[in-house]
Amino acid sequence: MRTKRITIIVCAFFYIILLTLTFSARRIHNASLPRVTVVNLEFERFEDKVEAEGFEGEPSLGNDPLDKDNKEKNNDIGNSHINRMNFKLSVGIPKELYENHKIYVIRREIVNGEERNIAREVTNLEIGQSNDKFYEVIRGLSSLDQVVLTGQDLIQDGSEVYVEE
Questions:
Q1: Quick one: 129 and 113 in the same domain?
Q2: 151 Cβ partners below 8 Å, 6+ apart?
């Protein structure tokens, strides 16, 4: 009788421990993952300085031979060259992020039947022009990608990560 009672107590204790571990498994797993913060890239304005000779339909600076007053006023500007600033919107990556770290993006992948956050290194990143704070992204990233902002030194390509809000 006594051995039956001890066996029942040990089994009950064992199942209580298993039930506790089952409900806290996700929290234990997340505590062991590297913590990262992410940012979505935004569209930034990049300048294109274009020098052209008399755009069609645009007023020119001093190249109308019949307008003597205009020619005298703008004699120091040049014959028919117009300096014009064009702006384009492109996805921009912060300069300090590009220069100091490897670039990782977060992908949602299924691992062991569960959807998880996996860090993937960007290897085909091509940048173009720059402005004060950003480089223009030509290829490799889009505005929909979640780019790892902090925690790059803790992760590798293919690592599961915990994304902090």
A1: yes
A2: 34, 35, 36, 37, 161
Residues 76 and 5 in one domain: no
Are 2 and 44 contained in the same domain?
no
Within 8 A by CB and 6+ apart from 77, the residues are 61, 62
**Residue 42 to residue 137: CA distance in whole angstroms:** 11
pTM metric for this prediction: 0.66
Strand blocks (E) in 1-144 = 35-40, 42-53, 81-94, 104-111, 114-121, 126-130, 134-139
Question: Are residues 96 and 15 both part of a single domain?
Answer: no
Task: Say which residue the tokens 């409900």 belong to.
Answer: 23
Among 129, 141, 158, 111, which residue's Cα sits nearest to residue 41? 141
pLDDT confidence bin for 83, thresholds 50/70/90:
low
